[in-house]
Amino acid sequence: MEIGGNGIEQWERIWTPHRKEYLTAMAGQFDDDTCPFCRAIAGDDDLVVVRSDHAYVVLNKYPYNSGHLLVCTNRHVATYDLLTEQEALDVQHLTQQAMRSLTAVSRCTGFNIGMNQGRVAGAGVQNHFHQHVVPRWANDSNFMPIIGGAKVVSELLEQTRDLLVENWSH
Predict the structure, then answer these.
(1) What is the DSSP letter of 89?
(2) Domain count, the chain
(3) CATH number of 6's domain
(4) I want to staple 37 with a disulfide (CB 3.0 to 4.6 A). Which of 48, 58, 128, 155 is the partner?
(5) CB neighbours (10 Å) of residue 114?
(6) pLDDT in the model for residue 68
(7) More confident residue, 73 or 119
(8) Catalytic residue at 68?
(9) Which structural domain, as residue segments, surrounds residue 95?
(10) Is 113 helix (H, G, I), strand (E, B) or coil?
(11) Which of 54, 68, 128, 130 is catalytic?
(12) Spatial CA neighbour of 73 closest among 138, 7, 117
């Protein structure tokens, strides 16, 4: 970390050019043709772990932790209150399965589970419902984010996906 001109600690920047496309793609305003979650439904994403009738699970391309999953509806719908009863049940069941699978594969000891609804709440893809399932471990906020200002993801996304597919808990 550095101390900025205002005397406040500031994170050093890490170069991530792969995020440029995502950040500039209509500022999160995706339609059915450009939405990354709709494209994943069409089979345009190698990070999909499992599919159900009304929802599916995909690894987050920009994870907070290794194994960070997104449970997405198949239908391009913006918010939780607009889900059908069956969509909500599929999201619920896939979230439970994701927790069991992540625990088995990564031996995590906790989870952050949540959804950001709308731009002001931090939704990066605000018009397609998705819920985050983030595995957590004791001391997973080690010295890297605190001293180095960086988050370490210790496994390639494709490796995580393969482990989850092989060990998916129904």
Answers:
(1) H
(2) 1
(3) 3.30.428.10
(4) 128
(5) 12
(6) 93
(7) 73
(8) no
(9) 2-166
(10) strand
(11) 130
(12) 117
Chain centroid, CA 2 distance in Å: 29
Residue 92 CA to residue 129 CA, distance in Å, equals: 13
The token pair at 121 is 């709440």
Amino acid letter, 125: V
pLDDT by residue (tens digit) across 46-96?
899 999 999 999 999 888 888 999 999 999 999 999 999 999 999 999 999
The least confident of 29-33, 61-65, 103-107, 136-140 is 29-33
Rounded Cα gap, residues 33 and 38, in angstroms: 7
Give me the residue label for tokens 């009304």: 54
Q: pTM higher than 0.85 for the full model?
A: no
Angle (nearest 5°) at CA 62 between 106 and 126:
120
> What type of residue sits at position 166?
E
The Cα–Cα gap between 74 and 52 comes to 9
Could you read off the pLDDT of 152-169 as tens digits, one per residue? 677 788 888 888 999 898
Q: List Cα–Cα distances, 157 to 46, 77, 120, 131, in angstroms.
A: 10, 26, 28, 18
